[in-house]
Amino acid sequence: MALRHLRLAPIFKKLTRLENSDLLKSKNQYKLLCRLSHFTYVPDTVSASDGETTRMNLFQSVTNALDIALAADPSAVIFGEDVAFGGVFRCTVGLQDKYGRDRVFNSPLCEQGIVGFGIGMAVAGATAIAEIQFADYIYPAFDQIINEAAKYRFRSGNEFNCGGLTIRAPYGAVGHGALYHSQSPEAFFAHVPGIKIVIPRGPLQAKGLLLSCIRDKNPCIFFEPKILYRMAVEQVPLKDYELPLSKAEILTEGDDVTVIGWGTEVHVLREVCQLAQDKLNVSCELIDLMTILPWDKETVINSVKKTGRLLIAHEAPLTGGFGAEIAATVQNECFLNLEAPIERVTGHDAPFSHVFEPFYIPSKWRCFDAIKKLINF
Amino acid sequence: MAAIIRALPLTCIRYPKYKSAAIKTASNALQFQRLESTSQQIPKLEEFDKPQFPGSQSRWTEKLEFVRGDIYDGIPVYRVMNRDGNIIDPSHDPKLSQEMITKLYKGMTLLNTMDRILYESQRQGRISFYMTSFGEEGTHFGSAAALDPQDMIYGQYREAGVLMYRGYTLDQFVNQCYGNKNDIARGRQMPVHYGIKSLNFVSISSPLATQMPQAVGSAYALKRSQTGLCVICYFGEGASSEGDAHAALNFAATLNCPIIFFCRNNGYAISTPTHEQYKGDGIAARGPAYGIPSIRVDGNDILAVYNVTKAARQLVVDESKPVLIEAMTYRIGHHSTSDDSSAYRSVDEVRFWHQKDHPISRLRKYMENLGWWDENKEKAWKEETKKQVMQTVVKAEKLKRAPIDEMLKDVYDEMPPHLKEQLEAIKAHIEQYHEHYPVDNYEKN
Q: Which residue of A has its CA nearest to B212?
C-alpha cells in the first residue's frame, strides 16, 4: 500500500532504545514514557499453577506464541511483508533463523495475495499464519476474507475449509498514526459469518488467544493493539497454553454499571472504573470482550441484568461500530432490567486524523462523563 | 518441447522475433539472472561499469529507446494436428492409445450432451442457472489427462470436463445443478459450482480469480510436503485482469511454487472482447515479465493441450517453479443462461468456430483417420449419452432438497450458540407459518 515510508517502525525502534537504556530501568522513568499515552497499563497477574513465567511485552508474547506454534506443528508457516528479518514491529524476530526460510518468509507487497495464498495453504491442510502489516491495509484482502475464507467450508458442504488460516494485524490508535496507521476495522468483519475476530488486551491474553486462533478450525483474524507492543509488560507463562475464544472476561466485578471494551480501550476503562468509584462512589463491572465474533453474549447479558446500566467504548467510529450490535442485543435481552439508555463512547464518524487524536479517541474523561449520565438518568 | 517452454527470458520482449531468438538467447540470458541472496554482492572493481542497481540486472545503454509491446510477432500457437485431424509433425504425436483417445472423445461428447440437456432444463425453468463448455472441451480433457490424479485442481467455472475426466459422475453434476439433498454442497451454491475433496477438485466460487493466489498457496504447501504433486489453476482471459491474477503470478514466481496456470482465452468475457480486455500479446506474454516460463497452445487441439500440460507438469514438479499456459479457443455457447451472446457478436462468427474449428470434430477426424471411430459408433454413443443424461435428470428432479438446517450448518466447524438460537427460531416460525413456505420440497429432519 501507499506511503509505507511513513510507517512507524523507526519511531518504535527509538522507543526500544529508550526502553532498554538504563535511563528507563526504573519504574518512574517507564511511567514517564507511558504518560505520553492516553491510558496506564496495569500488568495482569498469573497464578502459581501456571508454571515458570518470564517478563514479556506484547510483541514478545506474540513471538513466543508463534515460536510454540511452529515448534508444535511442522506444517505451520509465517509469511507477510517484512516478516523475515523480524517484522516492522519485531513480532517475528529470530523465527526464520530457528525454523528456516521455507517456514518464515517475506511475500511480495500485496495484501490480497497474502490472504489468498494463506487460504490456499490452509485448504491444502497446512497451518498458515499470515501477517498484514497494519490493519489499515487489510482492505485489499477484503474480498479474499469475506467472499472466500469466511465461506469456504459452508459453500463446499464441508468438503474443503481454510480453518488453518490465521491473519494477524497490528491494530488501533498509536498516538500519531493518523488515517492509515490507527484504524480499528473489526466491525467490517463482524458482519461476516464464518470468520472469528479476536483482540487481546495484553501479553498474557495475546499469547493464549493467538495460540487458540492458530489452532482453531476456522479462519481467524487476530488484531494486535500496536500501542501495547512495547508498553504492555507483564509476567507471561512460558508453557504452551490457550485461552478460549468467544469467552469474555470480567476483570472487576461491580453492581451499578457494566462497562465493556476490548484491546487498548480496556485499560482506559479500567481507569474510568476507578474514577467512578473514587469520584462518584459508583461500582462498575469491567468486561473485556476479547472475541468480537462470535461474541460472548451470555456474559454481557448476565452482567447487565445485574447492573441495569451499560457503557460500551471502542476506538472505531460510532455508526456501524460493533458497539451498536452489543447495544441492540442487550436492549432486546435486558429490556426490563435497563434503567438508563445504553451509552456508547467511541471514535467519531470521521477519518482518524493526525493532530486531533486526543479529542478523537474515547478518552477516559468522555467515558467518565458517560457513566455520570448513566447514573443520573 | 520442454526446451521451448523452459526459457523465455525477459530480454526476448525487446526483440521482434520471439520464436527462435528466444532459445538462442536463453544461455545469453543466464548472466542476467538476479541474485537470490538477501544482500547485494559487492562487485569487483572491473565490474563497476555495469549497472549495480539491486532492482534489476542488465547493462547500460546510451540509446533512448522505449521497449514497445506492439512491435513483435505474438507468441506462436503450438499445435500438433491440423483442422482435419492430421498430425503435422509425427515427433510431436503423443501416441495415446486407442483406449485413451476413445476415453477422451467419449468424455468430450458426454459433456457436450450434458451441456445441451442441462441448458434446456434451465430454459424450461427446471434449474435456475447453467453454463455450457461448448468449444472448450478440448482444453478440459487434454489438460486433465496429462495430470496426476492427486494433483490439486482450482477452477473458475467452465472446467466441468476436467472434473468429468477425474470421475465426477453424471449424478453428482446433475444433483449439484438441482441443489437436491444428494448435492455434496447441500444446495448452497448456484449450479455449476462443483467441488469434491476425493477428486482433489476444489469447490468453485463465483468471485473471479480469487482461486489464483489460493492455488499458489496450495502449491507451496504441496512443495513443502514433498509429495511430488503440483497444482493446476484454470481461469479465463477476463479473470486475468483481476488484481488477484497479478498477485498469483508474482507470488508463484517469487516463492517458487509448483503450479500450472492454465488460461482459457476464448475471446470474450461475457460481452467484452479481448481487445477491450488487454493491449498486450494476450496472457502468455505476461508470464516472462513475472519470470514464469510460458507457452501458448491451440486449445481446440486436444493433443497439443495434452503435450503442453504434460511438459508443464514435468517442469513445475522437477524445477519447483510455475508455468503459464494460454490455451487459445473460442466460446461457442452463450456466457451463461442469463446471457444472449447474439447481442454482441455475429451468428456467422460463432458458426465458423462451431463448424470449422471444433475440438470435438477435430479429434473425431483424428480417430476416423486411424479407423478408431465411424458414423455407426457415433450414432450409438450419442443415443447412449442422451439416455444416460436424461435418466440422471429425471432421477435428480424427483429428489427433495436437503433439510433447512443445512442453511446454518458448516458456517463454522461447530455451530456457535447464536446460530443455534437462530435455527431454533426459524424452526419455530416455520412450524407456525408452514403454509406460507415451500416446506414439502425439503427433506424433514
A: A116
